[in-house]
Description:
FAD/NAD(P)-binding domain, 14 helices, 19 strands, seven-stranded mixed sheet, alpha/beta
Amino acid sequence: xxxxxxxxxxxxxxxxxxxxxxxxxxxxxxxxxxxxxxxxxxxxxxxxxxxxxxxxxxxxxxxxxxxxxxxxxxxxxxxxxxxxxxxxxxxxxxxxxxxxxxxxxxxxxxxxxxxxxxxxxxxxxxxxxxxxxxxxxxxxxxxxxxxxxxxxxxxxxxxxxxxxxxxxxxxxxxxxxxxxxxxxxxxxxxxxxxxxxxxxxxxxxxxxxxxxxxxxxxxxxxxxxxxxxxxxxxxxxxxxxxxxxxxxxxxxxxxxxxxxxxxxxxxxxxxxxxxxxxxxxxxxxxxxxxxxxxxxxxxxxxxxxxxxxxxxxxxxxxxxxxxxxxxxxxxxxxxxxxxxxxxxxxxxxxxxxxxxxxxxxxxxxxxxxxxxxxxxxxxxxxxxxxxxxxxxxxxxxxxxxxxxxxxxx
Length: 409
């Protein structure tokens, strides 16, 4: 190990504990910020040569806001809230199936749902770290999890880093997860394909909500800057996003959704074809054996990739990050593996549960058969009229989460 860059503290404990994070996405950066604020020295290894504004919009619900409060960024994200009034579910012909009051969400969960640009959240987190914390152009190539007596080692294209803690946050296609758990099946295609886009506000007022058709969903949410974040999903028997499309993504969306109610066709037509993101959706349906191994913790999509139907992908990464920082807070270097057992205990059941919940919601909202669609629409209308709080109550296990209050020893 003579050529390894050591990120482990000294034997007498004079040095701060050191953490290396693989991946500068939202989960990795939140973990880095949380650990940094707990007194850890952090280094974030990111394969990209520069941090660019990628992605489009994402939802930050009450649980995500509470997680961001832990790192002092909750209020900055709350300031981005632009959703006003009711969220409406419609049929493709425009008929309303249900309404959910934004005020009712706040009354029940204490917070709004904030729709923010991924790039804005990324920038807020990156600015909360020391200038030299993020190492760009540093792709991870391997990992040694270490144990009670030896540090973990992250192998990168620029050398090997040793640390008291390594955080794997390299996304759904994580090569490091595969190295740690080679017998796990990894992510699988969920049966859904999805599009996301940022578009100008339409000529007429735009109501927040979703439209549910036969196997298809189209969602619309305003942003604080006046633009609209729109997303669409369709069932797919096989992977579609990587295949060639002669007509282009915008034309394909118009083909699928162009006869739906206004302003959906206008929104699609106003999108920049080059900026429409189309991805097949993968999920980790079989839970990992653990969310840690040795001195390595896994978080975010690398641990529990899920479909977008709950809007919880980013929120769960935020939860993972602050929980991880809590369980290792105040622990001497040799105690990290034991502390990470607590991290798995807290996060693995919840991650597996939300993966299942999200898939079930997707199967319900994107019912494809004629009888299935009829039953879905009937159930939604009946619940709206007879049990107006039923939808919000069903979200209690998801949105009522509170950050752990764990004191270090």
